[in-house]
Each structure stands twice: as structure tokens, then as C-alpha cells.
Fold:
Amino acid sequence: MHKRLRQLFTCVKEHSSVSYAKVATAGGFCDVELIIVKATAPDDLPLPDKYVHELLKIFSVSPSSFRAFSISFTRRFTKTHSWRVALKCLILLHRLLRSLPENSPFRTELLWTRTNGYLSLNPCYFRDESSSTPEDYNGFIRSYAHLLNEALDCFALDREASYDEETPESECLLDKMKLVGRMIEVLTQLQSLIDRVMECRPSGVAARSSIVEIAMKFIIRDSFICYTTFRREIVLVLDSLFQMPYKSCILAFGIYKKAALQANQLCEFYDWCKAMGLCGAYEYPFVDRIPQIQIQALETFLHGMWQLTDSSLSSSSSSASSNLTPKLTEDEGDKQIVVRKGTVVSTEWEKFEEDGVAPSEEEREPLIRFEDSEDDSWEDLLDASVNLPCGQSNLKDERKRTDTSV
Structure:
């Protein structure tokens, strides 16, 4: 009994607010708040287009009306307990976000309202008290509000900053890396938006509502744009995968790995939408399926590439440190030569003079020089490169052996 009384009170309250707005508008008081109340009437009719056009006209004439809309919208959305009113508020917000440009103060005012704690879209605290099965409507409205909350945070893709292959080679790499870094952020946001879209799948009695069906059409069509943009821009990131820094390369691979899982989920979601008759079948984009074996192959290749890079860096650093600390000293000269089966091995120290003069070309001879001999094997070369003299006594023995062999 108490539940039925609350439902009745909610319906009477919402209808009286709409009646007052209509009377006030007829008396010449036409402001943003009254338009919002009339547009979000608690009925099963779709949101009238004329109210959206009236708001856009007011925004174009009076820039201060953006603040008035954000405050009035917050008041209307947070105080209602009717799922029809709350859903129409979100549809109105969605349509205005699609109609107004990205640099409009509309988005800035909404972010200001949210930052100051007046508006909360995520988490959304809406609770329906106008129907006998509020759980299905509450879940859909909260998911829809979460989607719009992330849409407020997303920045638009800069079309003019797209990479052009005809740019000069000197500027190509730097500009391309900046663009790729921006693309990684955009692709992450697009994947998050696609996840929010799939969470908006209604269930129960909400899936059979005409207003929910209208909202789903707006949501699905926006997902077409998100996925088409994602599929186009991921190609640029993958083409530059092996030119990125290590951190960016790992982030890009994570996006690609998630795209494989998300593509399967998106196909299932689109199949459900087609079965429900939401949008035309020709409107749905083709979803690219990424084989799991391709993900594994790319992961193995990246792991091997960075492992090779780390080993090469460590070996180069160790060799550089060993060159800076000489282990041999010789009073008679600065060259040690060992001849072994036609192979001449020279261990010549580089000369670092105090005045900073670079070594001459004679001092840059290779450590191992091969003579014309067909009998050399890899075992002999290995012995010649490893069995170097380790002191003055060994040097003399080797010179005797050299004289004897000669």
C-alpha cells in the first residue's frame, strides 16, 4: 500500500510541474528551466524536437544560458523519482552534446557543475518510485548516465593533425611519434566508451519500453562512430609499433590485445540489437575479428625484441666499462701480436692523449685480422681470440713461439 501511494504521489508531482511550466510559458515566461520541464514530461511519448531546437536557439543568442541550463538540468535530474523523466533528461543531454561543437561552453559548464558536486552521473543515485519493477529501469538509467559522464571527459579527435605520408622525412618521425602518443590516449577512451555502450543493454521490462528503444538508437549510432574511428586509427599505431618507446609500445599492445576481446563482445551486442530491430541492418559497421594466434605471435615477437635490446645494451655497457679499465701494461710498446696458424690477432690499446686529439687511422685497426688461408676453422679463430697473453712472461713465450713458427 505504501509503495502504491509513493507511485501515485510521484506521478501527480511530475504532472503538476509540467502543467505549471506550460502555464508559465503561455504567460510569456519562457526560460531554460521551463523548457527542460516541458521536454521531460512523464509520458511514453518521444522527446519533442522543438524543445531541442529552442534550447539551441537560446544558446546561440545568450552565452550565459549555458550556466542556467546546467543548473536547471541538475535540479530536474537529481530531484525526480520517475524513470521517464530521468531518461528524457539524459536523452536531452545526449542530443545537445551531439548538436553542439566540442569547444562550446556547454561542456565546460556541465563539467563545472559536476566538479562542484551538484551533478553526479557516475555514480548515479537515481531511484525510481513510479513503477512496480524499478530495478530494470534503474539499471539502464545508471548505465546511460555513466556513458554520458565519460562522453563529457573525452576530447574530440583532431582531424587536421592526422599523419600525412607526404611530410618531409626530417619532420616525419617526431611528428608521427607525437601523433601516436595522442592516438593511444584517444584509442583508450574509445575502448572505454564502447564498454559503456555495451553496458547499456537493457533487460526485463526496460527492453520493451518505447522510450528506452529511442535512447538505445542514439547510443548505438554513437557506438558506430566510436568503433569506426577506433578501427581506422589503430592501423596508424600498429604501423608505428616498432618505432615507439618501450612504454608506448606496451600500451599500444595492450590496446590491441583488448580489441581482440572487445570485438567478440561487440559482435554479440550488435547481433542482439539487430534482433531487437534497433537501427537498420545496413547501418552496422563490419567488426574485425582478431585471431588469438596473431596476438600470441605479436606478444612473442615484442618480448624477443625487447629482450634482445636489453641484452645488447648490457653487453655494450660492460664492454665500454672494460675498455675504460686496462688490464695489461707493457713497457716496450703498445702492441701485442700473436700469430697462430695464419691468424694475426692484434690487441692494440687506444691512445687517449691529454689534449683530446683523436686517434689516428693506424690506431683504429681491427682487433682481429684474417690472412688469406683456407685452413682456418672456427675452433682456431676462437682459440686465437681467447688465448691472449696475460702478463709480461706470457708475452715473451708467445714471441718465442712466433719466431719459431716463422
About this structure: The CA atoms of residues 313 and 319 lie 10 Å apart. The longest strand covers residues 337-340. Confidence is low (pLDDT under 50) at residues 156-170, 320-356, 361-374, 384-396. The first helix runs from residue 2 to 26.
